[in-house]
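User: tokens in, sequence out, please.
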């Protein structure tokens, strides 16, 4: 078992416990014991729940960015987001328990908020959309809104094909595109030369 396989096994065990006992009762040592994993290595790699969330986010990003093909940026972004949703779906019960517990776990909420914004920049880059500079940061924030809207739909979506989730994602991407287009038309342009006097 390599490090990535170890991390995945530990994360799966933690979300299994969250699904049955609630997120607030998740303990990394107990998850490691349940999965038959070495406690010393668990301590070294994922010492607590916040570290577990960061690692889970990284693995979800890697899965989302794998297998990027050609095509319009919007289509690529749609596929990337759905691949990230697929990772959540693998641990559905535990992830839903986590989301419900966030109001009572402010540290986890802060970690997710910070890590998610960075993840959104990676997803944009994956679709060939510039995510650097001021404009890129605004795009990442808009993408975070798209992600949160999609996740809310996913929480309610009990269909096997996640059709409602995909519809919500498509709607959110359309709104984000319209908002960016509106912002671009309203942004004042600076004249190259000032008006002449005299």
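Assistant: Sequence out:
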């Amino acid at each position: 078992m390599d490090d990535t396989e170890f991390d995945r096994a530990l994360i799966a065990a933690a979300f299994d416990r969250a699904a049955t006992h609630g997120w607030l009762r998740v303990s990394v040592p107990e998850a490691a014991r349940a999965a038959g994993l070495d406690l010393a290595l668990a301590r070294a790699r994922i010492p607590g729940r916040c570290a577990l969330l960061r690692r889970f986010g990284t693995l979800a990003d890697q899965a989302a960015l794998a297998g990027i093909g050609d095509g319009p940026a919007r289509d690529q972004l749609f596929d990337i987001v759905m691949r990230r949703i697929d990772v959540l779906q693998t641990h559905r019960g535990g992830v839903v328990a986590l989301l419900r517990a966030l109001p009572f776990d402010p540290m986890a909420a802060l970690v997710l908020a910070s890590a998610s914004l960075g993840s959104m920049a990676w997803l944009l880059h994956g679709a060939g959309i510039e995510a650097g500079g001021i404009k890129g940061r605004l795009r990442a924030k808009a993408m975070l809104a798209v992600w949160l809207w999609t996740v809310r739909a996913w929480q309610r979506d009990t269909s096997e094909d996640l059709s409602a989730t995909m519809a919500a994602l498509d709607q959110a991407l359309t709104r984000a595109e319209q908002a960016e287009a509106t912002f671009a038309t309203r942004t004042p342009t600076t004249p190259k030369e000032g008006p002449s006097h005299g």
